[in-house]
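Our preliminary data section would be incomplete without showing what the modeling component actually yields. Below, a chain of 369 amino acids is followed by its predicted structure, encoded as tokens that our downstream tools consume directly.
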Amino acid sequence: VKFLWEVYRHVLDILKNNNKVEKLYQDMAQLAFTFCIKYERKTEFRKLSDSVRNHLNLIIKHSHQTNSINLNDPVSLQLHLDTRLYQLDCAIKISLWQEAIKTINDIHSLMQLSKKKPKPQALANYYKKQALVFSKANNRLFEACALMKHYQLVFDQKKTATVEEKQMLASGVLMATLAIPLPASMSENEKYLDLQNSTKDKNMTLASYLDLQHAPTRETLIADIVKQGIPGKVYPKLQPLFKILEIDFQPLKLCSLVDNMLTNVEKTYPDLGPYAVDVRQVAVLRLMRQLAQVYDKISISKVVSLVPYIEPLELELLIIEPAKTLDLQLRIDHSTRPLYSVVLFSIRERRLLVDRQYNRCRAKCSEIS
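Predicted structure:
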């Protein structure tokens, strides 16, 4: 096995940046990736990925040399894209997710060099693989974006898709979108400061991989699926979910309705099961926001009764987390144990709370100075 690996490595090194043997180089590269998959050689896969990446950099750097590969040639560029797509598929099979992200970056760079987009079928497969990588990274936002891109390409190119296939793709897009955590609300000043945040830069980079000009948000994706009519194209058992979670106002029944529907979906469509946990958590936060519009104070036992699928301690942790960002303004009063209560602030009280915190911080700064 070691001898075979050395053969692949040396052959690729000899064939690099030579347009006379360009097709042979790409074939050998794909054979080398297949070798790593067959024998589960993760270390060699990383080395091979680095070598292929370095060879591409050499092609760009020494493009003026005799017999060098011209990436402006559509045929040459397509050969490189085909190899990178195969590399991405192999990285997913061998569960090297960091290498998968690097490969996605390589594919994006090659697409930037091309004057025309790859074939729609290859592009749809690329977005599908991206969705899987984002899923493993637990990034529901960009997973939903990638699934939306895949959905649009498949429907544009595959006019003869069956009803079941259309429902399967639409259901995946809907569940991934609804599973995106509710974002924390920010003031205008906070939004400005967030421009300098590294998370903002990371999201812009990931957005560029999906050919997006701006970083997506949960709200923009919700608007997109409504515009595409996706909530009406999903499985029949799943169609009421969007309306219950995003439109209706029924805090006393919200979580029980969502739980019953997701339980049936998990049994009937196991592929959608991984999204159910996140959607249930979104339902809890949606419930608390709706309760804040009705109640000033509510006992924790009442809240627990409204959320049948989460233990009391887990529920308390779940609703406290967004309270740290002032997205969900509440205070849990433990002085009334064992029936302690959740105090939900009105809009006026929320502003007063922020003012008090600001004055407290200002006083501490004055003491220090």
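The longest strand covers residues 330-333. The first helix runs from residue 2 to 15. Preliminary results of this kind motivate Aim 1 of the renewal.
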